[in-house]
């Protein structure tokens, strides 16, 4: 379990997050939603240990995040940032292998198990065709899947993904969400994913966490979130809710 306990963030006198408390359970997929600038990336960065909270604590399985070494944190939690770093001259295989570093000893050669996890992550994210290419030569969508593969190779209990679908075409958006759903259901991961597409979120996620101006304005399951009044209160615009004829899910349109 991951506990976010009265977490607040202030930077340059600006309140990015008001005190926020909630928990992330294993075997659950959480969609983090809200307007541009509502604080989603800041929250996920704090949860990943990339931004130090002004107040409050984050606990992973009862251990305070601030007491984890970088390596111990990376054994528990993988984070995919919104702006992917430059992968330099790394090939796809080499980059995905970096995801194994928390499980390796200093200067140790990758083990057969490391290679197995890397190959599996490459297959799951459907990037086998480019495994020996330099990451810098890939398209935006291909690159996004390679970075996701690196996170999967990390074999963590928690996964924090900041807009992982942004560069993907609609087919890969669905493929990646199906894959994440599978990891949640079969491997018991707890996953937080920032999504702007409410209907994809409603189709694949279990719970919504909604931010508005740095405040937690709503947290709830799909039926309690896909309501006209709730979406109005989060986004300040009127939605019409339809029922998908095949899945019976609610679909929000403007
Ligand atoms: N280090 C910082 N110093 C000052 N302001 C910051 C800092 N980091 C973020 N902000 C501001 O905090 C607000 C929230 O930013 P954040 O990136 O968390 O929003 P977001 O919900 O992820 O937005 P988007 O959907 O556009 O990615 C924004 O107004 C941003 O400009």
From TrEMBL:
Family matches, as InterPro entries: AAA+_ATPase (IPR003593), ABC_transporter-like_ATP-bd (IPR003439), ABC_transporter-like_CS (IPR017871), P-loop_NTPase (IPR027417), Siderophore_ABC-ATPase (IPR051535)
Subcellular location: Cell membrane
Alphabetical keyword list: ATP-binding, Cell membrane, Ion transport, Iron, Iron transport, Membrane, Nucleotide-binding, Transport
Protein's UniProt name: ABC transporter domain-containing protein
Bilayer topology annotation: Peripheral membrane protein
PROSITE patterns per UniProt: ABC_TRANSPORTER_1, ABC_TRANSPORTER_2
ABC transporter domain mapped to chain residues: 2-238
Source species, domain of life: Bacteria
Pfam families listed in its UniProt record: ABC_tran (PF00005)
């Amino acid at each position: 379990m991951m506990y976010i306990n009265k977490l607040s963030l202030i930077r340059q006198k600006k309140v990015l997050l008001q005190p926020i408390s909630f928990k992330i359970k294993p075997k659950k997929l959480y969609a983090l939603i809200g307007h541009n600038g509502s604080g989603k990336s800041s929250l996920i960065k704090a949860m990943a240990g990339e931004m130090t909270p002004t107040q409050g604590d984050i606990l992973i399985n009862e251990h305070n995040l601030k007491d984890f070494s970088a390596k111990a944190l990376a054994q528990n939690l993988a984070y995919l940032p919104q702006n992917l770093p430059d992968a330099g001259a790394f090939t796809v295989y080499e980059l995905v292998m970096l995801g194994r570093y928390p499980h390796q000893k200093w200067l140790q050669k990758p083990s057969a198990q490391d290679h197995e996890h890397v190959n599996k992550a490459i297959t799951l994210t459907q990037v086998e065709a480019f495994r020996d290419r330099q990451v810098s030569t890939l398209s935006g969508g291909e690159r996004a899947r390679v970075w996701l593969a690196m996170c999967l190779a990390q074999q963590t209990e928690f996964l924090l993904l900041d807009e992982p679908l942004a560069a993907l075409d609609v087919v890969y958006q669905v493929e990646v969400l199906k894959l994440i759903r599978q990891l949640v259901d079969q491997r018991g991961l707890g996953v937080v994913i920032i999504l702007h597409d409410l209907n994809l979120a409603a189709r694949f996620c279990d719970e919504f966490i909604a931010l508005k101006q740095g405040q937690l304005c709503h947290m709830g399951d799909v039926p309690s979130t896909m309501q006209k009044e709730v979406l109005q209160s989060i986004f300040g615009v009127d939605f019409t809710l339809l029922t998908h004829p095949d899945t019976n899910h609610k679909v929000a349109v403007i």
